[in-house]
Amino acid sequence: MTVDCSVTLANAAGWSDLAEFETVTVQRPDGARWEIGWMYGNPVAALLTWENTSAVVVGCGVIVADLRRFGETVTPGPNSPAPHLRADPPETWWFETVHQQEVGRVRLVADVYSEQAGVYDLDLSTQRFTRLFPDSPET
User: Fold this and answer.
1) pLDDT tens-digit series, residues 29-57
2) What's the pLDDT band for 139 if we cut at 50, 70, 90?
3) SS3 sequence of the chain
4) What is the C-alpha separation between 136 and 139, in angstroms, rounded?
């Protein structure tokens, strides 16, 4: 008997962001699953973009999975179909929530007890973070 211990972090239009302990998976509407990464300390929040092109998972860093590349092998680096951003020591960022404000962009809240505390805009196509609050130059 197989027991599914996954937790659904987000779902939209039949797609789901799932976490099973520290492993993060995306499930298509047809039930096929794609493991997009591993997140230390377990992911805390996720979303599927309005246009169903990206899955964004936050916790220790941010995983941004390009759903148009579903099933491709996930490798380290910015050209991966699911890069894991801001998760490498010594500059590990902890995020608490994610929200979509407009197409192709999401807002992230970094841990209020960290040096990076604040609200950030993340451009999903360029992977560029801009600190919105408190006011600060781009990072």
Assistant:
1) 999 999 999 999 999 999 999 999 999 99
2) low
3) CCCCCCEEEEEECCEEEEEECCEEEEECCCCCEEEEEECCCCCCEEEECCCCCEEEEEEEEEEEEEHHHCCCCCCCCCCCCCCEECCCCCCCCEEEEEEEEECCEEEEEECCCCCCCEEEEEECCCCEEEEEECCCCCC
4) 9
Asked if 122 and 106 touch (Cβ cutoff 8 Å), the reply is yes
Q: 60-93 b/e with 16+ CB inside 10 Å = b?
A: bbbbbbbbeebeeebeeeeebbbbbbbbeeeeeb
Instruction: Indicate whether 71 pLDDT > 60.
Output: yes
Average pLDDT of span 5-9: 90
Pick from 74, 70, 78, 60: nearest CA to 16 = 70
